[in-house]
## 1
Amino acid sequence: MKWPTIVGYIAAISTTVAFIPQLIKSHKTRQTKDISFGMYLLFCFGLLMWTIYGIALKSAPIILANIVTLAMGIYILILKSKHG
Amino acid sequence: MKWPTIVGYIAAISTTVAFIPQLIKSHKTRQTKDISFGMYLLFCFGLLMWTIYGIALKSAPIILANIVTLAMGIYILILKSKHG
């Protein structure tokens, strides 16, 4: 595997896994006041677009990374909607 | 321009612009308690990796989108460090 591919995988894993601590924090504390609803709404829309882009390109890493992040983003958005 | 390219641009713009409402909110309110430090730390690291990946691929859209998001991510991280 060439080094840019490895860096690409590290990048994809990092920006996906990054949402786990936020998800856990928001789930546990039920406190989402300081989180921007607009950010997660637009971010989730963007992730859906990235997923469609990945499908068009038949790129499994793009599809996978974005679907996982999208699922977490939607959950954070639900928590935000519930707890304000 | 082919449709997947257009979708890719919409995706890149959306996931970048998404951080503007969070940045404005955190800057104005100075309240960052509900935001996960770990998320932004890992996310910024990931964005740096995406930027390096973009440089290796000589892809201007990847470099640009990620450098802009990285700058916003670092600023949110600084606000979080200051306001807890």
## 2
Amino acid sequence: MAASFVRNGRKIVAIGRNYADHVKELKNTIPKEPFFFLKPTTSYLPSGGNVEIPRGIVAHYEVELGLVIGKGGRDISSSDADSHIAGYALAVDMTARNLQDEVKKKGLPWSAVKGFDTFTPIGSFIPKSQVADPHNLSLWLKINGQLKQNGNTADMIFRIPRLIEHVSSIMTLEEGDLILTGTPSGIGPINAGDEILCGLADAATQQELSKLEFG
Amino acid sequence: MAASFVRNGRKIVAIGRNYADHVKELKNTIPKEPFFFLKPTTSYLPSGGNVEIPRGIVAHYEVELGLVIGKGGRDISSSDADSHIAGYALAVDMTARNLQDEVKKKGLPWSAVKGFDTFTPIGSFIPKSQVADPHNLSLWLKINGQLKQNGNTADMIFRIPRLIEHVSSIMTLEEGDLILTGTPSGIGPINAGDEILCGLADAATQQELSKLEFG
Ligand SMILES: [Mg+2]
Ligand SMILES: [Mg+2]
Ligand SMILES: [Mg+2]
């Protein structure tokens, strides 16, 4: 079932502020522990689709590595976390940035600003066996051929086992859940008509693991 | 499938600040339009279970009417909203109030403070045919026999069709989704060992529609 997580999964848990350069560009402070928000699975957009930008919304891209949960569980220890991962997926955490600025000021939830239909472009399932080291992957995003984001998962503030430990200490993880692990710097808006292309590769061998495109 | 929404549903959309008396007791301002947050379906606790209060957490009850979606859709108009409802359920939106006060100050998401396992006690599915008027239901909550909340759905600031219109303008609703419609005044903490009993009844006839209990 994990391979069909886009169709059958029940939740998307997205980590915020997990790359120091991105924390700086949004003038936020480095978190002392991981934090996260939920996105609805109705926000998935398979590669090749179009992000719908609601009227009046400034829609920012955030390219991220996704963890697809295989074996569910709660209170998963970081030492046991890897055994709960079935695979990976390249994803974009689209964000209504102008609305997010407003709700942050008012202390309101992030669910709407992160949860519009089509706001989670998602690549194909990558079986775990194809990934030598999830903490040494390059992930990048281009708009109309121009490189905007180019990060390495080695730069995560909180690494994958810690993320799984933290999330599962609050809510049970189930098979098919997706955890988004945060975005490196370079985020910005997309506009109608833009062509967005993202890639994920093994940073040691340059072997491509996934591509994801949308308009 | 709607009748088995607790097992098979994919999201819980919870409306905030939808009863004026509750808005006042938390010293919040009356919203100009509905707002909501997501709770994970892993937070469901069937009647008869025990809410787990994490160490250091002040866990508040909020008794609420839940709408169970039958026919999915997006951009549902308020005039069409009723046809998307399969039934109702009595629910409690448990909230880690001390953590919520912190995240509101910091402009952080609400997902964790609302999303702990067991933080959505939920009653049985009530088929729509049993409910004469969803805007004239009394809902109450007692702790150890003492009445704490006693509201009427007639007092919602935003009524059910408007809630469905608003949520579905942002995210597609699917069969088995639950919409929590907000809580009347009287919220407060529960403590280990408390016995909580909630009820839902037709306010015109006093006919009982649901009971929900947890410890
Ligand atoms: Mg993100
Ligand atoms: Mg927390
Ligand atoms: Mg509530």
